[in-house]
């Protein structure tokens, strides 16, 4: 291996290592792929909640992190909470639901 090749290969290998580390997920940060998956899940959940005429979906906030969906906001009945949670659980890709909705 020539010296010029080694001088070139080391910085290139280091750049790839840093790039790969930047795409990995941690306990508090999702990888790029996980972030995109979470965005799709959030959109699907919001769409399904919007389709339900008994829910005021504008008052329910949806956030997703690594497939775990958190529902928050104010709702008018326990039935609305149960319905929102049930709809969310049926969305493909949802690994769990955290209910932070509050009865008003």
Automatic annotation (TrEMBL):
InterPro entries: BON_dom (IPR007055), Lipoprotein_DolP (IPR051686), Transpt-assoc_nodulatn_dom_bac (IPR014004)
Residues covered by the BON domain: 37-104
Heme keyword on record: no
Keywords assigned: Signal
Source organism, top-level taxon: Bacteria
Pfam families tied to this protein: BON
Keyword Signal carried by entry: yes
Extent of the signal sequence: 1-19
Name of the protein in question: BON domain-containing protein
């Amino acid at each position: 291996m020539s010296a010029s090749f080694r001088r070139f290969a080391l910085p290139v290998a280091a750049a790839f290592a840093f790039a790969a580390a930047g795409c990995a997920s941690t306990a508090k940060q999702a990888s790029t792929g996980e972030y995109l998956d979470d965005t799709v899940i959030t959109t699907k959940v919001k769409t399904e909640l919007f389709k339900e005429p008994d829910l005021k979906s504008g008052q329910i906030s949806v956030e997703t992190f690594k497939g775990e969906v958190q529902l928050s906001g104010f709702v008018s009945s326990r039935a609305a909470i149960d319905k929102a949670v049930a709809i969310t659980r049926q969305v493909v890709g949802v690994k769990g639901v955290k209910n932070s909705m509050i009865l008003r």
